[in-house]
Structure formats: structure tokens, C-alpha cells
Design brief:
Elements: H1 3-30, H2 34-41, E1 49-59, H3 65-78, E2 83-86, E3 101-108, H4 111-123, E4 127-128, E5 139-143, E6 162-170, H5 193-204, E7 207-208
Parallel strand pairs: 4-7
Antiparallel strand pairs: 1-3, 1-6, 2-3, 5-6
GO molecular function: structural constituent of ribosome
Protein name: Ribosomal protein L5
GO biological process, one term: translation
Length: about 210
């Protein structure tokens, strides 16, 4: 190989080096990839909070026709069949007997849970109190009238209030509940009130008021 050919080869290598540097610069700074954008926003996707389930509960305090009508309200709202709950103790003051069916509840997951929760928070004007959040990172609240959720009023059913219970979680928490090869979740990975309050404020642009 002659000297002229060596010079041409060196120039070609220098040109390729320049092109590679330009490509790397544009990919890294000018047009960042989705992976780089995601890593800049969240350090670890396993730490992200999500809604595991939403439980809607209506406590009537007695069995009979009122309990049946309350079941219809939850069925209209969720599209699922509610489950009736029994009293654990006898309370003579309220006329409640042990094992008497006094309440109905339904468990909702997935996008449907997020949709109904959004409607419930809209009734509360996206404002909750610190006492609405538990130490384990879950939260709940109640509304006085179910028609505020957008359900049409039915004179045959009446108006019922209901409680919202939201269970939060992180990816990987299932290892503590599964049957086989059950493990433990570290304290740093468990949900707490502070993390849930911060998630609640960012997700719904909401406020936690101290009143």
C-alpha cells in the first residue's frame, strides 16, 4: 500500500469518527431517546405508585328493602354485582344483630377504578385531609349523595351516601401475598402516607388541607 493510499485511509477513518460523534451528540442531547427521557423523569419505575383496587361501600344498618336498593346503586355505578356484608357484633342501641346483613360493597380494579375515583374526587373538589390517609399509604373518603357522581335520581331507590377506599401499591408487592415462594417486602419499598400524599397531589393536582 502506497503512502497516498495510507493518507486516504486515515482521512476516511477521521471522517467516520466525526460522523459517529455527531450522531452520538444528536441522539444524546438534541433528540434524546424515550429511554433517556424516562430515566430523567423517574429514577426507578419499580418505585412508582399505582391504584391496586377501589372499594365502594354503602352501610345501611339494616337488612331488607333498603339494602336491596343500595345494591342497585352500586350495580349502576360499577357495572358489577355487589357483595353483602354481615355485622360482626350485636349492637342493641342500633338494633343490629350479629351476622345480619347490613351493608354492601364492590371492588373495582383497572381503568374503571380510576374513572370512578376521579368522579368521587370531583365531588370533594379534589381536597382531602391528612387524616384521610393511613400509615400504610392507603386513603379513603365519603360522599353524602350518590347522585353527585352523575347517576340519575330514581324515586324508587332514593339517595344514598357511600365510602371510597383506595388501596395503593408498588410493583413487586405481590411476593408478600402469593402462596408459593412467599417473600417479604422491604420497608423502603412499602407504601406510606407521605408517598401517597405526594402522588395524590401530582396525579390529580389536588390539595391536602389541614382543617
Amino acid at each position: 500500500m502506497t503512502d497516498e493510499e495510507n493518507v486516504e485511509l486515515e482521512r476516511a477513518e477521521m471522517g467516520w469518527r466525526f460522523v459517529r460523534r455527531q450522531i452520538f451528540f444528536h441522539l444524546r442531547y438534541v433528540y434524546p431517546t424515550p429511554f433517556i427521557q424516562r430515566s430523567a423523569k423517574t429514577q426507578n419505575v419499580m418505585r412508582e405508585l399505582h391504584i391496586e383496587k377501589l372499594v365502594l361501600n354503602i352501610c345501611v344498618g339494616e337488612s331488607g328493602d333498603r339494602l336491596t336498593r343500595a345494591s342497585k346503586v352500586l350495580e349502576q355505578l360499577s357495572g358489577q354485582t355487589p357483595v353483602q356484608s354481615k355485622a360482626r357484633y350485636t349492637v342493641r342501641t342500633f338494633g343490629i344483630r350479629r351476622n345480619e346483613k347490613i351493608a354492601v360493597h364492590v371492588t373495582i380494579r383497572g381503568p374503571k377504578a380510576e374513572e370512578i375515583l376521579e368522579r368521587g374526587l370531583k365531588v370533594k373538589e379534589y381536597q382531602l385531609k391528612p387524616k384521610n390517609f393511613s400509615a400504610t399509604g392507603n386513603f379513603g373518603f365519603g360522599i353524602d349523595e350518590h347522585i353527585d357522581l352523575g347517576i340519575k335520581y330514581d324515586p324508587g331507590i332514593g339517595i344514598y351516601g357511600m365510602d371510597f377506599y383506595v388501596v395503593m401499591g408498588r410493583a413487586g408487592a405481590r411476593v408478600a401475598r402469593r402462596k408459593r415462594c412467599r417473600g417479604t417486602v422491604g420497608n423502603n419499598h412499602k407504601t406510606n402516607a407521605e408517598d401517597t400524599i405526594q402522588w395524590f397531589k401530582q396525579r390529580y393536582d389536588a390539595d391536602v388541607i389541614n382543617k
